[in-house]
Design a protein that fits this description.
182 residues, alpha+beta, 3 strands
């Protein structure tokens, strides 16, 4: 009956799951529920945020498998791709080995703590932004702009099309393939 009514499987509404999942993408689980606890006068724990986020992550692959991408005619003339590894601290509960003593100096090749990495893939197409020689000279020697002027200038010259950003946890090859395929 819950499915017929469009109710979520857990006890939290889709909107609340969305808020928790969204805030957990920017910060750790404890911090992600702190603001919601204050606004809603509730007591969500970091463990609840972690469970909700893990449940939401099950839909990621299906989302990308069913995503539609623009026709090649809608793409710009040039393709740009960027890949970056970001270190992610491992929770103490996820560590399967003894942590090195912090009282001694680390040897060559030893790491302080343990991290896993996430490879972020950013791709987009663009058309060239053609400038006259005078525009180039003006941009080099013009007096500095304030932040508002600089943002307006950047926005007016942003010709990126069909930008895709996605992170892959500990799977560099998959990140590269995704970047070049989409």
């Amino acid at each position: 009956m819950d499915q017929e009514l469009g109710m979520p499987q857990g006890k939290y509404s889709y909107k609340l799951q969305d808020w928790i999942g969204y805030s957990a993408t920017d910060m750790d689980f404890r911090s992600s529920v702190k603001l919601l606890n204050r606004i809603l006068d509730h007591n969500f724990s970091e463990m609840q945020a972690q469970r909700i986020t893990n449940n939401l992550s099950a839909d990621v692959e299906e989302f990308y498998d069913n995503a539609t991408y623009p026709d090649k005619k809608e793409e710009g003339a040039y393709f740009a791709a960027g890949f970056d590894d970001k270190g992610i601290p491992i929770l103490p509960s996820e560590v399967n080995r003894q942590v090195d003593s912090s009282g001694e100096r680390l040897g060559k090749g030893q790491k302080n703590g343990v991290k896993k990495s996430s490879t972020v893939s950013v791709t987009y197409s663009f058309d060239p932004f053609v400038r006259t020689p005078d525009e180039v000279i003006t941009s080099l020697f013009d007096k500095p702009r304030d932040k508002k002027q600089q943002q307006a200038y950047s926005d007016s010259n942003d010709n990126r099309q069909n930008k895709h950003i996605r992170a892959f946890l500990s799977d560099k090859q998959k990140a590269m393939e995704y970047g070049f395929d989409n």
